[in-house]
Write a structure and sequence with these properties.
Its main location: membrane. This protein has 477 residues and is an all-alpha fold. Helix content is 79%, strand content 0%. It is built from 20 helices and no strands. The protein is globular, with a radius of gyration of 22 Å.
C-alpha cells in the first residue's frame, strides 16, 4: 500500500511513538508504590487526563476502522451506531456519584468488588468469567489491529506483528499500570480526537462539499445511502443491546471513576467524554460516507477504506500523521482493556485467596497478572480462528449476566444475595448456551439471555434474610 519512501518515514514515526510510550511508562514505574497506584492510579487523577482517557477507551481501533467501513459501505444511516453506543453511557452518568462514593468507602478496584458488596462472594466468579472472556478477546483484537497496520506498512507477517505488539504493550502496561495508561491516553486521546476531526474536514472539502456529495449517484442497491433511516431496526437493536449496553458494565470505565481525585472530576470528565465520543463516532461514519460519494474511491475490501481515504486526500506528512493517529487510537484502547483484565486476575482471583498479605505483595501480583492477561490475549490473537465471535460472546455475557444485577445493586442497597447469584448465572448460562447452539431462529444470544436475566430479577429484589445480609456486609468489608 505504501512505497519505499513512505514506508521509511512511517517506520521512523512508529518507532518514535513506541520509544515515547516506553519512556512514559518507565517514568511512572518509579512513582508507583502501592496496589492502588497500579490498579486505580492512586485515586488521584485530575479532570483533563480523565476526559482524554475516557475518549481514548471509548473510540478504539475497531471503532475507527469499523465505523469508517460502515459509513463507506452503508451510508449515513450508520450514524445511529455511535448514538446507540453512548445511550447506556448516558444512563451510567447518573450513577457516578454512587459508584465513586462506594469505591472510596470500600477501596474497590473491580466491578466484581461492587457486586460482591451487594450480593456476596457468590457473584465474584461469574462476574470474573464474563470480564475475562470479553477483555481477553478484545485485547487480542487490538494486538491483531496493530499487527495489521504493521503488515500494511512494513509487510510483516501477521504473527510477527502480533508478537511485537504483545511485547510492547505488555512491557508498557507491566511498568506503569493504570497510571501510565491514563497519562499516555491523555496524549494519544488528544491526538486521536484532533486527527479524526481534521480528516473529516479534509474529506468533506476534497469531496466538493455537500452540494457535490448530495448530487452524486447513489451506490448501486443502496438508494438510502444519505438517509438517516438507512439502517434496519434489528441491526440497531442488536448493537444497542450488545456494544451499547456493554458500556454500562465496562470495568475500564468504573476503574476510571475510582481513579478520579474527586467526584467532580469524575462527573466532569465523563460528561465531556460522552459528548466527544458521540461526535468522534459520528465524524468517523461521515468520513466513510463522504469519501464513497465525493471521492469515488473503489476499495475491494471495505475494511481498508480508511487507508485508501488518507492516501487519496493527504500529502505524505499528513498521511503519516493519520497512520500514527490510527495507532494511537488502537493503543489507547488496548492498554485500557489490558489493565482492566489484569486487575480482575489480581483482585478477584489472587487477592481473595491471599488475605493478610501486605500491599507490596499485591503490587507484585498485579504485575504478574499483567503477564498472565497478556499470554491469554496473545494465545487468542494467534490461535483463535474467530476472535471477534469470542469478544461478542464475552460482551453478551457481560450484558446478559452482569448488567441487570449491576442496575439492581445501584438502585437497591440490600438486594437478596441468593437471588442475585441465580439471576447472574441464569443470564450467563443462557447466553453461552445460545451461542453454542449457533443462534437458533437467527436470534442473537443477548436477545435471549437478557430477558432471562430480567425475568429472574424479582428473586434479587426480595427482602433478604438477616443472616444473608450480615454475610454480604462481611464479604464487602
Amino acid at each position: 500500500m505504501f512505497d519505499t519512501r513512505e514506508t521509511f518515514i512511517l517506520s521512523i514515526m512508529i518507532i518514535a511513538c513506541g520509544v515515547f510510550l516506553m519512556g512514559l511508562s518507565l517514568y511512572f514505574f518509579r512513582r508507583i508504590k502501592t496496589y492502588d497506584d497500579y490498579n486505580v492510579a492512586g485515586r488521584s487523577t485530575s479532570t483533563f487526563p480523565l476526559i482524554c482517557t475516557l475518549i481514548g477507551t471509548a473510540v478504539g481501533g475497531s471503532t475507527l476502522l469499523g465505523f469508517v467501513s460502515k459509513g463507506y459501505t452503508f451510508g449515513m444511516g450508520q450514524l445511529w451506531l455511535p448514538v446507540g453506543m453512548t445511550f447506556a453511557g448516558i444512563a451510567l452518568y447518573f450513577f457516578i456519584g454512587k459508584i465513586h462514593a462506594e469505591g472510596e468507602r470500600l477501596n474497590m478496584v473491580t466491578l466484581a468488588d461492587f457486586l460482591v458488596s451487594r450480593f456476596g462472594e457468590g457473584v465474584r466468579v461469574p462476574t470474573l468469567i464474563s470480564i475475562l472472556c470479553a477483555y481477553a478477546a478484545i485485547t487480542g483484537m487490538q494486538f491483531v489491529a496493530v499487527a495489521t497496520v504493521l503488515k500494511l506498512v512494513f509487510g510483516l507477517a501477521l504473527p510477527v506483528g502480533i508478537l511485537l505488539t504483545w511485547a510492547l504493550l505488555t512491557a508498557k502496561t507491566w511498568l506503569g499500570g493504570l497510571m501510565a495508561v491514563i497519562w499516555s491516553d491523555a496524549i494519544l486521546g488528544t491526538l486521536q480526537t484532533l486527527g479524526i476531526f481534521f480528516l473529516l474536514v479534509t474529506v468533506y472539502y476534497a469531496s466538493g462539499s455537500w452540494e457535490f456529495i448530495s448530487a452524486a449517484p447513489m451506490p448501486e442497491g443502496n438508494p438510502d445511502f444519505l438517509s438517516l433511516t438507512g439502517i434496519s431496526g434489528h441491526e440497531l437493536a442488536v448493537y444497542m443491546l450488545t456494544i451499547g449496553a456493554y458500556q454500562f458494565v465496562r470495568q475500564d470505565l468504573w476503574q476510571r471513576f475510582w481513579a478520579a481525585r474527586s467526584l467532580k472530576a469524575a462527573r466532569t470528565g465523563y460528561g465531556v467524554a460522552i459528548v466527544f465520543t458521540l461526535l468522534v463516532g459520528g465524524a468517523v461514519v461521515l468520513i466513510g460516507a463522504f469519501a464513497k460519494l465525493g471521492l469515488d474511491i473503489a476499495v475491494a475490501n471495505p475494511d481498508l477504506s480508511f487507508y485508501a481515504i488518507i492516501k487519496a486526500t493527504l500529502p505524505l506528512p499528513l498521511m503519516v500523521s493519520m497512520v500514527v493517529v490510527l495507532l494511537a487510537t488502537i493503543i489507547s484502547c488496548a492498554d485500557s482493556f489490558f489493565i482492566a483484565g489484569a486487575s480482575s486476575i489480581a483482585n478477584d482471583i489472587i487477592k481473595p485467596r491471599m488475605k493478610g498479605r501486605d500491599d507490596a505483595f499485591m503490587l507484585r501480583m498485579s504485575r504478574h497478572s499483567v503477564v498472565a492477561m497478556s499470554l491469554i490475549s496473545l494465545g487468542l490473537a494467534l490461535y483463535a480462528p474467530r476472535l471477534l465471535d469470542i469478544w461478542i460472546l464475552g460482551s453478551a455475557m457481560l450484558v446478559c449476566g452482569v448488567l441487570v444485577p449491576t442496575v439492581v445493586a445501584l438502585c437497591r442497597r440490600t438486594p437478596d444475595p441468593r437471588g442475585g447469584v441465580i439471576m447472574m448465572w441464569g443470564g450467563l448460562a443462557t447466553a453461552v448456551l445460545w451461542q453454542v447452539l449457533g443462534h437458533p431462529f437467527g436470534l442473537h444470544p443477548v436477545m435471549i439471555g437478557l430477558p432471562v436475566s430480567l425475568a429472574l430479577m424479582p428473586l434479587a429484589l426480595r427482602k433478604p434474610s438477616l443472616s444473608l445480609s450480615l454475610s454480604t456486609e462481611s464479604a464487602a468489608r
